[in-house]
C-alpha cells in the first residue's frame, strides 16, 4: 500500500477500500485484558504519581486525555471496524496461544514460555479485591461507566467493574 512506507501510518488514514483490502490480507489477533487489571498493572508499574490506588483512579477519571495504558480498549483496537480472527484473553494465554500457534502451523510447545495462567488469575483476583475495596462507590460507578464499551464488547464476566 502506498502509505505503508511511512513510519507511523494509522489504520484510520486509509480509505475504506484500502482498509478492507489490507486487513483482508492479514491474520488479525487482538490481546485483551480486563480493564480493571490494566489499571492495577499501570498503578503497580508506577505510571501514575499517586500514592494510593484510589487517588490514581481519581487521576484517571479526571484526566481529559486518557493515556494508552488505561484508555478503553475499544478506542484503541476498533473492534467494530476491524474483524479480528482471534481474540486472546490475558489470563488464558498458554491455552489460547497454543491454539493460535497450532492453527498457524507452528510448533506450539517449543515456542511458548512457561506460563501459569491459574497463578496469574488468582493473583489478579486477590489484587482486584484489595484495590477495589479502596475505591468509593462513586469511583466504582464512574470506572464502570468509563469502561462500559469494553465490558460490553469483551467477555470480562468476572471483572469487578461488571457488577
TrEMBL record:
Keywords: Carbohydrate metabolism, Glycoprotein, Golgi apparatus, Membrane, Signal-anchor, Transferase, Transmembrane, Transmembrane helix
Top EC class of this enzyme: transferase
One CC-aspect GO term: Golgi membrane
EC number, UniProt record: 2.8.2.-
Membrane topology: Single-pass type II membrane protein
Subcellular localization, as worded in the UniProt entry: Golgi apparatus membrane
Main location: Golgi
GO molecular function: sulfotransferase activity
Key word Transmembrane present: yes
Gene Ontology terms describing biological process: carbohydrate biosynthetic process; dermatan sulfate proteoglycan metabolic process
Signal sequence region: none
Family stated for the protein in its record: Belongs to the sulfotransferase 2 family.
Protein name: Carbohydrate sulfotransferase
Record lineage: Eukaryota, Metazoa, Chordata, Craniata, Vertebrata
Gene: Chst8_2
